[in-house]
């Protein structure tokens, strides 16, 4: 009697590279749009007839709008196809850049920027959630690293290229170019990005493994989110003054501060790439990256050897570059499919809130104690968060056997 052939083992699907690369390109443009006023600060200020401090406020206002607008907008479109939401948000971002390019006055530019900020808040939340739905959980770290690699390139390449365009053809041309590229990205999102493919367990599917959210509830998600926010306060508090903290190190490099910032940016890209290689070991990797960030911040206080300063900046870039993809992956994993939209909105609020709080708190510190006072408190804040993340990870690991035993008893 012939034995019927067995069903082949389920094939491990490859990453949806075309979808991830388009979404990564979109995040590159999102970051470029946010930071573009800093790249064209002088000519934009002159063109609008305002002080450079007023033009700089366009970036701060952007972050504030992202924090305020993300949750309401996500709730407004919660039942829509996420691909349509990303494409539509990208169109609005393109319109914002075009309106900024046309702005005859500072007030009009502010209005255009507020529109773009609201779109980006929605875009970050939706892109985060859709990436998690595109891939199985075991591939989440790699997928997040690919998409956030675009955001890193926005800092490393997007704003410098925009400055080159502004120098050659004026600051308005830089915004026009960004508007055109963003419109093209919206078309690519609609045509290329795949629909969600990840299976979502339901109560009708009792055989499906419970997600972390179902096993542990929302408390671990909120705890990790709060600790990551603390990391960002310390990191961005110091990064706000990176050019002042690294003056001696920059002096030994051709190109000075610009070259050192390029070193930091390229090192951050390495950190993003490394973060994608940890797979399901995201939590210990996040603890390690946080601890390494704290150590490099503390090392900034040692300015006796400029060459050592360059090495410290590179190490800081690698460690801090790994933080966003690792943190985002862990937050999405803890949320599970049940709270993915909530977690997607939480991430831009967390990052922009951390940036704003860090810059504000350390600005007050610098005003009272000077630049030299920044590294040690920044390191202490990040170190405290690393300890908290380590303790939280230990508690979850200790709880797993007990929860597994309870689940086994329930099935008897």
UniProtKB/TrEMBL annotation:
Q: Which spans are transmembrane here?
A: 20-39, 59-77, 84-104, 110-131, 143-162, 174-196, 217-239, 251-273, 285-302, 308-331, 343-365, 371-393
Kindly give the PROSITE patterns that the UniProt entry links to this protein.
Answer: MFS
Classify the main location.
membrane
Subcellular compartments: Cell membrane
Descriptive protein name = MFS transporter
Q: Which superkingdom does the taxonomy of this entry point to?
A: Bacteria
Topology relative to the lipid bilayer, per the entry, is: Multi-pass membrane protein
Domain Major facilitator superfamily (MFS) profile residues, every copy: 18-396
Q: Name one Pfam family in it.
A: MFS_1
Entries under InterPro entries matching the protein: MFS, MFS_dom, MFS_Efflux_Transporters, MFS_trans_sf
List UniProt keywords, sorted A-Z: Cell membrane, Membrane, Transmembrane, Transmembrane helix
